[in-house]
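HOLO CASE FILE
Compound: iron/sulfur cluster
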Amino acid sequence: MIDPFGRHITYLRVSLTDRCDFRCVYCMAEQPEFLPKTEILTLEETARVCAAFMRKGVERIRITGGEPLVRRGAIRLIERLGGWIGAGGLKELTLTTNGSQLVRFAKPLYAAGVRRINVSLDTRDPDKFRAITRWGEVGKVLAGIDAALEAGLKIKINTVALKDVNDGEFADLIGWAHGHGMDLTLIETMPMGGIDDDRLAQFLPLSMVRAKLAQRFTFEDTAYRTGGPARYVRVAETGGRLGFITPLTHNFCESCNRVRLTCTGTLFMCLGQEDAADLRSPLRTSADDRMLDEAIDAAIARKPKGHDFMIDRRHSAPAVARAMSMTGG
Ligand code: SAM
Ligand code: SF4
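Model generated. Tokens follow.
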């Protein structure tokens, strides 16, 4: 699949649910309205969409959410997709999780063929963690991370940079993550979805964070790229990799290789644009995949050039109304 700007689409992100056992302040309201079950793709339907994308050249799939591991049966879908790794045409199956269920699922994930996961963790301080997630327990997540490392999974920690919340902790998080052989990526808050807190108050530009960290660490340039928005450096003192995702201060769209499927079967061609394609109707209208294939082709043909994220005092409303928990980040 090649889009109008010559980009090869080889990467599909699949959100399994809009639900989550946490309520991170930058992601969800405290009492979000979750979707009725009938609107959510069955895992069978999700597998059908994944298969269609793979026939069209998708080589990597990332499972996300909401919290993907709270979806009942998620591990069975992951096992099924894992069966397509190698001869089945899939090069890699990965997962983004908040880590709360990893004690239980680390070994089954590895057994299913998953080798790398992203775990979101903004702080190791129990009180701050509870303040950010509204009721999460950091101890459970840290135990999950240990279980995942023990199971043989490679981990990247994703940390959202929040002004006056975790900004004093980045050096400590880098030391901890790299000390355990994990990469760490810092993420700027993106203006997505209706949340209860003030978006502008949370926003911390990573250019400032980076400048401050550079006084303490030596950053070496690396050519490492994932096709995504992150830019990486190697930290000389730790030997570990540190990523920066700065959608608001940098443009990363020219190398975008991905599209995103929500749990309702809506395909977003860009995280920062409203345009989307409904794949659920063709899925449910016909048991053969012709209509589904056509809908996918039409969607790729109108993948936009880039996003229009912006946070400033005149633009404090979300740039896109849906939350990250819908498209999975
Ligand atoms: N629940 C899983 C998790 O937290 O890893 C997977 C879904 S979550 C939506 C994916 C990533 O998006 C997490 O790393 C989270 O921190 C990030 N995220 C959510 N809302 C965001 C926002 N408004 N700006 C930046 N990152 C956000
Ligand atoms: Fe849940 Fe992940 Fe959103 Fe936090 S960021 S509320 S863990 S979906």
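CASE NOTES: DSSP finds eleven helices and twelve strands in the chain. The chain has a mean pLDDT of 91.
CLOSED: yes
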